[in-house]
Amino acid sequence: DIQMTQSPSSLSASIGDRVTITCRASQSIGTSLNWYQQKSGRAPKVLIYAASSLQSGVPSRFSGSGSGTDFTLTISSLQPEDFATYYCQQSYNGPRAFGQGTKVEMK
Amino acid sequence: EKRLVESGGAVKQPGGSLRLSCVASGFFFGDYDMHWVRQTPGKGLEWVSVISWDGRSTSYADSVRGRFSVTRDNSKNSLYLQMTSLRNEDTAFYYCAKETHTVLQGKAYKWLDPWGQGTLVTVSS
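The joint structure predicted for all components is written out below.
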C-alpha cells in the first residue's frame, strides 16, 4: 500500500507569510494527489486535486505542484481564515491514504 | 447543493455492533462511488472504505477489513457502514464522502467532495 508523509507536522506563521507544506508518497503516484483543508470542528474540504488543479471557489493564493513522489502545497499570502490543518491524499490506487496532517498556527 | 448527512453514531462497548447511515441529496447518488473516512478526535484522517456506484465492488482499510461492511441503497440515496467486533481504537468521527472525478489530458483523477458533517462513534467499556 502507498504511504503518505507530510512535513512539517505543524508550523507557525503570520498573516501575509508564504507557507509551504510538503507531501511525499512511498512510491510514484504521478499527479494523483489531492490537498484538503480542515478547520476545527468541521469536515475537510478539497483545495487542490490532480496535484495542481484548483477546486472551484478556492482562492488563488492556494497552489499545488509536484509529480511522482514529491508534492507541495503553497499559500502565497496567509490570510486569517487559512489557519487550519492541511492533509494530502493519494488517489492513484489502493487504499486512499492521507498524510498525517500539517497544522498551520498563528505566530 | 450537494449534501451528505451521516447518522447512527453512538456509545458502544467493545465487541459491539453499530450501523452508520449517510443520506445524499443534491446529486444523482447512483452515479458515484462513495467513501467512509474516520478521524479520532484530535488526530488525523484515516481512509476506511469505498463502495462502487453499483455496490458491486468494495474495498477496506486493513484496520477494519473483516469487521466492517459497506453497502448502499441507491433507491434511497443512502450509504451504510455496518461495524462489528468494535474496538476501543474504532472511536472516531466517521465521515461519508462522495468521490468526484474528472479527466485531464486523458487521465482520470478522483477526489472526495463533498463530505458529510460526521457522526461520532465512541467505543468504551
